[in-house]
Amino acid sequence: MGTVVVGYVPKPEGEAALSKAIDEAKLRGTKLVVVNSHRGGQEFDGDAARKAEQDMDAVRSRLDEAGVSYDLRQLVRGFEPAEDLISIAEANSAELIVIGLRRRSPVGKLILGSNAQRILLDAHCPVLAVKAGD
After folding, report:
1. Is the pLDDT confidence value at 122 over 70?
2. Does the structure show a pLDDT above 80 at 119?
3. Which residues have a Cβ under 8 Å from the Cβ of 78 and sit 6 or more positions away?
4. Model-level pTM?
5. In 3D, which of 37, 46, 54, 130 has the Cα closest to residue 89?
6. Closest Cα to residue 3, out of 90, 87, 67?
7. Beta bridge partners of 131
8. Residue 104: pLDDT above 80?
9. Cα–Cα distance, 118 to 82 (Å, whole number)
10. What mean pLDDT comes out for the span 77-94?
11. Of 35, 29, 70, 36, which Cα lies nearest the Cα of 51?
């Protein structure tokens, strides 16, 4: 069975990526691996950890409702999210990575987010980048 890997953040771009990844997993008949990566550090305290767990509970419910086979990976290990996503995609022989992009100002459009850029350039498989709805 193949795998679709999605980078998830509890923001509109993460929700858009998750929706598209669910669609792709159903279309391809693959397992879905949802990756939620945090760098950790002082800002990831008890409150942040509890909030992250609540966010993952909501994702679990959504995936159960969608009826796809899935694996949730919540990582707090000091790596950049791009590193986590690429390594998990490689370890699972992913056939597709799905990421969400946020809207940017005209000047910001000149520079793609560093995590998105790294994933697009370094991934071993196709990457589907989706924008959040307006």
Report:
1. yes
2. yes
3. 39, 40, 41
4. 0.85
5. 37
6. 90
7. 101
8. no
9. 6
10. 87
11. 36
